[in-house]
Amino acid sequence: MRIDTVRDGGSTVLRLSGRLDREWAGHLSSTFEELLREGVRSLTVDLAGVTYISSAAMAVLARGQQELAGLRGEVQLTAIPPAVREMFAVGGWGVRLEGGGSTGPSGADLRQSSWHLPALSVKSGEYQTSVADPQGTLTCHTHGHPDRLVRAPAGPDDGDVIPLTRGIVALGLGAIGAGWEECREHLGELVGAAGCAACFPGDGARMPDYLVGDGPRAPQVRISSGLSLEGSFSRLVRFHPRAEAAAVPLSELAGVCLDAVGGSAAGLVIAAETAGLVGARIRRSPGMGDSPIRFDVPDVRDWLSFSPERTHPRATTLVAGVVARGPQGPLAAQLRPLGPVGHLAGHLHAAVFSYRPLPQRTVELEAFVKELFRNHELRDVLHLLWDDRGETGIGESALLRGVGWVAPITRVA
User: Fold this and answer.
1) If DSSP codes are grouped into helix, strand and coil, which group holds residue 62?
2) What is the pTM of this model?
3) Residue 19 shares a structural domain with residue 127
4) Residue 305 φ/ψ, nearest 5 degrees
5) Cis peptide before 340 (omega within 30 of 0)
6) Per residue in 250-281, pLDDT tens?
7) How many Å apart are CA 275 and CA 314, to the nearest integer?
């Protein structure tokens, strides 16, 4: 058996020859997974040289079609020999196996439409935008005050309890739950969207915790210091690196998202495949003990976990937060510089999951987020930072490809 991969513009051709039996089905599956990781979304499988195909191999092809269909991509099977075509028929595949769209055992057409919008090229990334809700805007609520927690421990009067209903995004230093006594020991990095919450408790936990809201009542989170967004998103932004760039810097993506909605401040949720993240996580809850958070050296080591290099390469992340140019008023206290250019500031938290290939076109936020929480391992929750220590710093987070939901912030409360 032989598997050859040939690049043809934006698509890829997989040329197979020999006996595609159970053993080689495993090799084919590994090839599909690697192509998905590389961002391939249009795949042609040339079967001209195949003399035999087993059910195991058919299952791999069906799974590949389903995965790419879910990503708004396509798989086409071409040049199928008569003997192999008969084997497909025995396996229950549809009769229309090539041309005009490919079909799996269900016979369903897997071709999908694209955005058909002009692309915007910036320094490192290429971007396309699409309208989600032409009237979509966001109200940003501030909760607590970050400076308060460096003067005194967190208390029951700091921050607010937020129900994570469908249109709410929340992030900051908080915990899953509502009552102060229930939450005070567990305050840590938190992010919530689409009725789901992820938190890395500051109680010595080794793993992050999460809650998916599927019942009639929305999950509640208590945020001692942070932000929440309420409303609807007006634009979708999809992105990937330019051919000469290794990845898309987070600050560049944030600037494009802000420009896409034409405001001075915007709220966003981004689903992306990672090149590496730069972020910190609080080690212990500021609701415990009688001392405030300390950010001076060496005490900061007792309070924050920060890696000397980018973390979580080749993972999937859900980033939520606020970006702005020249923020003023109560919003300014919650935002920090995002990168070396553009005078951007932001407050962004990331939930990090095991890798999964991401859709590159229109997707529904709630369905995507819930599927991510249900079916993929939650590995970390981070407050994303820009390490601005020059040559000794590690810079900013970088992403490979993904899609973002964004809207202008028209009111700060």
Assistant:
1) helix
2) 0.73
3) no
4) -105, 120
5) no
6) 999 999 999 999 889 999 999 999 999 999 99
7) 6
Cβ contacts of residue 266 below 8 Å, gap of 6+?
138, 257, 258, 322, 323, 324, 406, 407, 408, 409
Beta strands in 9-144 (DSSP E): 11-20, 42-53, 74-78, 120-121, 125-131, 138-143
Nearest alpha carbon to residue 384 among 328, 295, 312, 332: 312
- Residues 140 and 411: beta-carbon distance below 8 Å: yes
Q: Rounded distance, CA 146 to CA 354, Å?
A: 31
- If one counts the domains in the chain, the total is 2
299-333: string of b/e by CB count within 10 Å (b at 16+)? eeeebbebbeebbbeebbbbbbbbbbeebeeebeb
Residues 357/358/364/366 CA torsion (nearest 10 deg):
60
Residue type (1 letter), 7: R
Residue 362 and residue 221 share a domain:
yes
Look at strands 74-78 and 42-53 and give their pairing: parallel
Q: 282 to each of 72, 148, 376, how far by Cα in Å?
A: 38, 16, 24
Contact of 321 with 381, CB cutoff 8 Å = no
Q: Say if 108 falls within a structural domain.
A: no
| Residue 274, beta-bridge partner list | 399
Tell me which residue of 394, 349, 380, 35 sits closest to 206, measured CA to CA: 380
pLDDT in tens, 207-244: 999 998 877 778 899 999 999 999 999 999 999 998 88
Domain encompassing residue 51: 2-90
Q: Which whole-number Å values give the CA distances from 72 to 109, 153, 179, 194, 259, in the listed order?
A: 12, 48, 43, 21, 26
Which phi-psi region, left, alpha or beta, contains residue 289 (left: φ > 0; alpha: ψ -120 to 50)?
Answer: left
Cα(262)–Cα(70) distance, rounded to whole angstroms? 31
Domain boundary among 72, 90, 108: 90
